[in-house]
Design a protein that fits this description.
By secondary structure, the chain is mainly β. The protein has 2 helices and 28 strands.
């Protein structure tokens, strides 16, 4: 079980280190969400909640941090920690999921998937989603009451899911369990996507999990070269694609029983990787200026927008509504930064975007 005593120690130390909000941020401004002395990595966002894992120097491991940005002048934070690492979180409304490195009574250790329901920031209810002895469960992702993850040994992981409607009795089910390796799952509502190396290169697959005892699987990218790191929002799927010899961002739209492949989101000769999507806004990390920066595009118009211009590195973006978050090393350690998008071509309808100017 998680240590309540350790949680209180971390929270008090966090306050003493000045882990407070950046002050009132304006639309279009870049700001650090909750500055600290430890590395903050792997941010995710849904609604007003931003989550990430953070290295806690006083304990020598990673814990989960949850920040509520409803009031930018007084950002609230909560830390969930236990002995060993807690990493790679995701969030949907008031539910946070992550992978936790657990040591058993026989001193064996493995990754399990845990979660917390947090209707209020000052308290939470912890529960375990998947805990199979001598088996690793990693990279959880959540949508509604469904959590998906990578399951099994690193060289041949499968995709599993769980219905957590009743947190006391999660209902686990297999989504993709084959001899090949399936990894990097993403989910939105009843659609799960992942990458699979069944044919010797990485391809993207999807599955409708409405019938959980018989998920309907289909190929998203039956192409040459590698396609990896899928993300999904509504009827749109995005991924990074090596078809041109470097990594670019590609997209497809689910149109009833059909899958329509869209023009490439990016085609620059540098690498564009780690896409994320919400609605029709796609974000990614981009290497065209020599360091990693965050770019975004509106899927209907294909127009690209440069989000960050700092000479440090900005990586691993996530997006929800008008808020983009990412991992940034401008202060010398990785910190989670954010921007709230202004009204403009990136956030308006397709018609309003028709005359948008591409930012370099």
């Amino acid at each position: 079980m998680f240590s309540v005593n350790r949680y209180f120690v971390i929270f008090i130390l966090g306050a003493s280190l000045g882990l407070a909000g950046p002050g009132l941020a304006q639309m279009g401004e870049v700001f650090a969400v909750w500055p600290s002395e430890g590395d903050q990595e792997a941010p995710a966002i849904h609604g007003n909640r931003i989550v990430w894992h953070e290295f806690m120097p006083e304990f020598g491991d990673f814990d989960i941090v949850v920040a509520d940005i409803n009031d930018l002048d007084a950002i609230e934070g909560q830390i969930i920690g236990e002995d060993g690492d807690q990493m790679n979180p995701d969030v949907w409304e008031d539910t946070v999921v992550w992978q936790s490195f657990q040591t058993e009574s026989d001193e064996s250790a493995h990754w399990d998937v845990w979660a917390a329901r947090m209707p209020h920031m000052d308290s939470y209810n912890l529960f375990n989603i998947s805990r199979v002895l001598d088996n690793d469960e990693q990279m959880p992702r959540i949508s509604g009451n469904t959590v998906v993850w990578e399951d099994g040994p690193l060289e041949s992981t499968s995709i599993y899911g769980s219905d957590i409607t009743d947190v006391n009795r999660p209902v686990e089910f297999a989504i993709a369990n084959y001899a090949s390796k399936q990894s990097a799952p993403a989910i939105d509502r009843l659609t799960v996507v992942w990458q699979d190396n069944e044919f010797g290169d990485w391809d993207i697959y999807g599955s409708d999990i409405w019938l959980r005892n018989r998920p309907e699987e289909y190929s998203v990218t039956p192409f040459e070269a590698h396609q990896t790191a899928p993300a999904i929002s509504g009827k749109y799927i995005v991924w990074q694609d090596q078809n041109a010899g470097n990594w670019d961002i590609y997209a497809a739209r689910m149109d009833g029983p059909c899958l329509v492949h869209l023009p490439p989101v990016t085609d620059d000769v540098s690498d564009q990787v780690n896409p994320a999507i919400d609605g029709q806004i796609v974000v990614w990390q981009d290497g065209r200026h020599g360091d990693w920066e965050i770019y975004a595009a509106h899927l209907r118009t294909g127009k690209q927008f440069r989000i960050t211009r700092n000479p440090a590195n900005q990586i691993r973006p996530a997006v929800y509504g008008r808020v983009i978050v990412w991992q940034d090393d401008r202060s010398g350690v990785w910190q989670v930064y954010a921007m709230i998008l202004e009204d403009g071509p990136l956030t308006q309808s397709a018609e309003a975007c028709s005359e948008a100017t591409v930012l370099d």
